[in-house]
Amino acid sequence: MPSRLGPVSRALASIALVTVAACGASQQGPALSYGESARRDYERALGAYRDNDCLTATPLFQHVRREYPYSRYAALAELRAADCELEQQHYSEAIRQYRSFIRARPTHADLDYAHFRVAVAYFRQIPQDFFLSPPREERDQGPTRSALRVIERFVREYEDSEHVAEAQRMQRDVLALLARHELFVADFYLFRDRPRATISRIEGMLEDYQGSGLEPLALVLLGRTYLHMGEPDQARVAFEDVVAHYGESGFAAQARNFLERMDRGAATVDEGEPPAPEPQPEIDPDAEPIEEEALPEPEPDDGDQSATITEPTGVVVDEPVETPPEEEDDEDDTSVRDTNDPPTGPDRPRAPEPDRPQGQTP
């Protein structure tokens, strides 16, 4: 069928087709260039990050986020920029950037990674042991408790994440540190003779920090505290719990030792291991018995304020007898003396005098 368009109409139609094709080509070209440019700039920043050069990588990641906000590399650049802050120990800034990513991209495939890195940032803020500084368990545990809350939330909400195993390892370390802190406080109370406070701290530690790995140690300390208080039935329950649930632990041997002593009626207080008996000299049955020399009785002297002491050699030594000072009335004394100070004055025990050689007088 012949076309009804004239020569002019056919020419205009051809021009229109060429224009449409040109427009399509112009749109396709910039779109490909946009994605390729975003990928190229991101990979350049990623290379600097892998070389541990965050000073170079951070501005390059920011460039990708700013220039290519609609590419998939913008979100990856956000995460890597937060990783740089974490590696530089800028923990507060790293947490802020991770959480900004979580709020802005709640359906992103790397959402679990962002939550995990928040937990890592909290974990790394826990004080570490340093030379000439108190142990970690003796310091403030505020950062440790915050880390535990964040880690437990991640483990609970992302149990299928590939980062769960590492998060659980951090969780065990945090639980052990908090448990050691509670045992440190419990031991402090026991040293101050406050056994009820000791028991309260140990029971709270066993309830709040399950999985710390210090349960057998805590139960042995609990049983010893009950023995110290004179409550053997409660102590037996604690020791039997160690033997029943932690039989492979080294503390199970201690628990069995206490139980055996309790069965013999020997463990009524916390005295640790029973003292070893002193070795007795061997007696020769054929040896002649040795007669002990009777010591002469001292002769009292009523006319002098000294006591006559007769030594086995017959040498008489007169030593003056100190008259104890009269007790003073301390009702008006408002001074406070630490009960832990050693006694002074007449209450202070005298040091024993050295033995004198026989036959000598002072």
Description of the structure:
This protein is an all-alpha fold. It is built from 11 helices and 2 strands; from the N terminus they run αααααααααααββ. The chain has a domain at 29-87. It has helices at 7-50, 54-67, 72-87, 91-104, 111-124, 142-157, 164-191, 195-208, 215-228, 232-245, 251-263; strands at residues 306-310, 316-320. Strands 1-2 form a two-stranded antiparallel ribbon. The protein is elongated, with a radius of gyration of 42 Å.
Number of strands: 2
Strand ordering within the main sheet: 1-2
Largest sheet geometry: 2 strands, antiparallel
- What are the secondary-structure elements, in order, as H or E? HHHHHHHHHHHEE
Q: Level of helix content?
A: 55-70%
Mean pLDDT: 76
Radius of gyration: 42 Å
**Global shape:** elongated
What is the first-to-last residue Cα distance? 151 Å
Which range does the strand content fall in?
Answer: under 5%
Enumerate the spans where pLDDT stays under 50 for 5 or more consecutive residues: 10-31, 269-285, 289-298, 300-362
Class derived from helix and strand content: mainly alpha
Please work out how many helical segments DSSP would assign. 11
